[in-house]
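Appendix C reproduces, verbatim, an entry submitted by the partner laboratory led by Prof. M.T., so that reviewers can inspect both the input and the predicted structure.
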Amino acid sequence: MGEWMAEHPPSPDTVLVSPAIRAKQTWDIAWEAMKGRVDAPVVEYIPELYGADPAQLLETIRTATIPAKPKRLMLVGHNPGMHELALMLMGGGDAAGCKALAGNLPTAALAIFDFDIKDWGHVAYRHGKLALFVSPKLLRQA
């Protein structure tokens, strides 16, 4: 997935990562594939991401990103909260991606959303447009 992200800009400028070992390893592997090919993002390890439900994840998006003011934010967290949040953020977008995401958010998958907002504090349920959903399985099938 890191290779895919490096080849399909834009890349995130801030990454919020759960402090869990598996989440850190996931980010490290992705970044290793991206390093030298994209600008290095600000990476923050956020304890609140571990085991978070959608409401906690949304609150983290709204508050943890304020100092960095990123244009593109990436979360590296855990299911079921991440999958539930993705479903709750969807207010439309790529029909095939919406259908695929409805079933599962597998390990290392990316759900890329666009929000018509000026501030991360305004991210809200059903206001995200799913721009793309990609997973290791979908890439192997392509």
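The chain has one domain: 2-141. Additional entries are available on request from the coordinating office.
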